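User: Could you check the structure of this?
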Amino acid sequence: MRTFLLRRLLLAVVVLFGVSVFTFLAARVVPADAAAKWVGPKATAAQIARARIYLGLNDPLPVQYLRYLSGLVRGDWGESVVTHQPVLGDIKAYLPPSLELLVLSSLLAMAVGIPLGILSARYQDRIPDQLSRLVAITGVSVPSFWLALLLQLLFFQKLKLLPVGGRLDSVFRLAHSVPVMTGSYVLDGLLAGDWALVGSALKHLILPAVTLAAYPIGLVTRMVRSSMTEVLGEDHIRAARAMGIPNRTILGRYALKPAMGPTATVLALSMAYSLSGTFLIEAVFAWPGLGRYAAGALIAADYPAIMGVTVLVAIAYVVLNLIVDLVHAWLDPRISLR
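Assistant: Sure, the predicted structure tokens are below.
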């Protein structure tokens, strides 16, 4: 296991190095002048020249890349050409709301998708299976922005049960002191024992989390069903049934455990994608997350910010894949010996 983990860590370093090279070259070949963006739309030639010196754009590309790589290692991810603030600082401000939304949606995906997949595999080609597959297909097919608008119309406009968007009510912000520790209102409320803040934050989280969870629910349901259906047809399952082992034990211990490996992979990739790919959901619900920050950076051609988000998402993919590899090795010890 130690060798397996070391090999995966070395591969992760290689992947991150490749991502740093790609993001650096992509930012340099795009036909746009970062110095002009830095100074503003009414910049003079002298101001642009001074900005190029300040940003180090006149240095040779190898020197610029080494400086960029050194900055990544030291935590200096450059300065945004729009806000003129450190990119890493901007990311730290926008990341907690996205993580808050991502964690809740992932928990919903597992809580709904895994039981539906088990039910579908247990009653294969029967009514429960048909209904589960209908839910799965709907989840992966419905556009997220359309589902977000539909939920707003139903739960805000018609039923008056949930807020239309934002992280907290404006009246609540004015009348309540909000502690700032991690940037996640739910976690900050729990740490401070502020249950009013926790309740308000969870109330605002429900609709965007359900919208974000729709796609991974479909993926998890289909993956669990497919994997369990394959395992249930193997010889050791038939032998277990012949020995009189209860069907609940067969499903939970012998069939579900092998199915969790591929399911964990799908869920991890979905989480990494959702980290910055949820700008439509965040736009509909006025959620100040990393997706809106990345979309704004793309519109403004803010290349340091774009590069910072790209590196962050790459790190998320690498870390989540490493965790999935460890989960696979734990579920099936033969993997660590390959």
